[in-house]
Design a protein that fits this description.
alpha/beta, Rossmann fold, Elongation Factor Tu (Ef-tu), domain 3, 3 domains, six-stranded parallel sheet, 16 helices, 50% helix, elongated
Length: 464
């Protein structure tokens, strides 16, 4: 077998500066669109259009419509992040999270419009002050106190999802607060059952809304609660060892029972909860850093905050709760014989696991690994072993950050030309990318300018 040695890549002298089962995306998208059209049809069937002929009845009718569409979008939002395997494998968690955010804010804004329009419409029809009508709605209509509490929960979720608020929160804390969206959706149901004219107007409407709520509730109970509990109990994961890899970076080795039956692949991540005192309820999304083995798993964590630093101090025998696996950055995405992997910092973790699991011949795989210095390289000994044994071409891109918007260290020229210099036939490769979000965007831009087809660039974003 031909050995390909590792080396630190230098800027070129003449650089000119300057088969996993899934569903069809169109089927799922069509189902979502049809559900929204059906809700509008229920509104029309319930005299929604006829009521537009009067001023205050029209305001009330539009308020009913915004409430119906808001409720439907809320259910779609819940379903998007219910961890349903077929949906997750079709779109990937990064796209689902993006759509979840867009659908969530749209639903929230429509909910606010529903509250305002219904209150105005009722007040205008009864010729009473708006604040008095709002108070009467909350205190006298069945289910409205619960709906008010549910709205408050959704307001909290929406406020903490704004970008400025997310910057001030740890992911783990934000994730825990975000679960109140389920409470908000559940508390809205009695209001629809008892006072929602479009819910109770016909057996067809009642059957539809009961089915929609039932499907979403079942998805949450089964895939967000049942499956994680079952896998945690079945596999009984615990910490086996904690090993330092680089300054501030540690690998956690985990052992368990029947791990060969855990359907996890190299490149995927799980949500981890370590039962080691305060903070155990907060989930941590960490990728596998080695291909799964029958008796063990490995994750690698960089100390970026209190929770990740706490992970580095775990003791052997610490019990672990898991959710997952999630993610589509697996060998199934591969379409070409040759592969280039591009990593930055601790983003090497899922790509290191893929290097172990992928089938390839010597010279077919190139790894470009970007860090600030030689001391920051993670898994250097393992990467050099893969270079010697499996013929991986490993190039280290070391040095402080270059110009703004570049994925390369200082001293390099044009991003796309440098990429073609490093991997001359990059246009015929699959490109797997992992690192900080802005850095990955820079890599994608360079790869596209280097004529890599968009469907051959594979990455997952972990922003929230």
């Amino acid at each position: 077998m031909t050995a390909v040695t590792t080396r630190t890549a230098r800027p070129p002298v003449d650089v000119v500066t300057g088969s996993t089962r899934s569903l069809r995306p169109d089927v799922l998208g069509a189902a979502a669109a049809f559900s929204l059209l059906f809700v509008v049809a229920l509104w029309v069937r319930g005299r929604g259009l006829q009521d537009l002929t009067g001023w205050w009845t029209g305001v009330t009718s539009i308020g009913r419509l915004t409430g119906l569409v808001s409720a439907e979008l809320l259910l779609i939002q819940v379903l998007l992040m219910a961890r349903v395997p077929w949906i997750e494998r079709t779109y990937g968690q990064d796209r689902l999270a993006h759509w979840h955010r867009l659908v969530g804010f749209t639903s929230f804004n429509l909910m606010l419009a529903h509250i305002v329009l219904i209150t105005l419409g009722y007040a205008g029809t009864a010729s009473v002050p708006v604040l008095r009508e709002a108070w009467d709605l909350v205190t006298t209509y069945p289910g409205m106190l619960l709906a008010t509490a549910g709205s408050a929960a959704l307001v909290m979720v929406a406020v903490t999802s704004v970008r400025a608020a997310r910057r001030r929160l740890r992911y783990e804390s934000w994730h825990l607060l975000h679960l109140y969206a389920y409470l908000g959706a559940g508390l809205a149901l009695p209001h629809q059952l008892w006072t929602g004219a479009d819910f109770t107007a016909s057996p067809l409407a009642a059957a539809y809304w009961w089915t929609a709520y039932g499907v979403c509730a079942a998805a949450v109970v089964v895939f967000r609660l049942g499956v994680p509990v079952w896998r945690t109990v079945r596999h009984r994961l615990e910490v086996a060892a904690v090993v330092p890899e680089a300054p501030g970076v540690h690998s956690i080795y985990l052992r368990g029972r029947d791990l060969h039956r855990l359907p996890v692949r190299a490149g995927q991540f799980l949500q981890w909860r370590f039962l080691a005192g305060p903070g155990w309820s907060r989930a941590h999304p960490y990728s596998l850093s080695a291909a799964p083995r029958p008796g063990s798993l490995r994750i690698t964590v960089k100390s970026l905050g209190d929770d990740s630093r706490r992970v580095s101090t775990l003791r052997p025998g610490t019990k672990v709760l898991i959710e997952g696996p999630y993610g589509r950055l697996t060998a199934d995405r591969r379409t070409a014989r040759r592969v280039t992997m591009i990593a930055s910092g601790v983003g090497i973790t899922p790509l290191r696991a893929l290097l172990e699991e992928l089938a390839y011949s010597p010279g077919d795989v190139t790894l470009l690994y970007r860090t600030r210095s030689d001391a920051d390289l993670v898994f250097r000994r393992e990467l050099e072993h893969l270079a010697a044994v499996r013929g991986v071409r490993v190039l280290y891109l070391l040095g402080p950050r270059g110009r703004d918007g570049s994925w390369l260290p200082a001293g390099w020229g044009d991003d796309a030309q440098s990429l073609r210099h490093l991997v001359p036939d990059i246009a015929r490769h699959d490109v797997f990318v992992c690192g900080p979000d802005p850095w990955m965007e820079s890599v994608v831009r360079a790869a596209r300018r280097a004529t890599v087809p968009a469907d051959r660039i594979h990455l997952e974003r972990f922003t929230w």
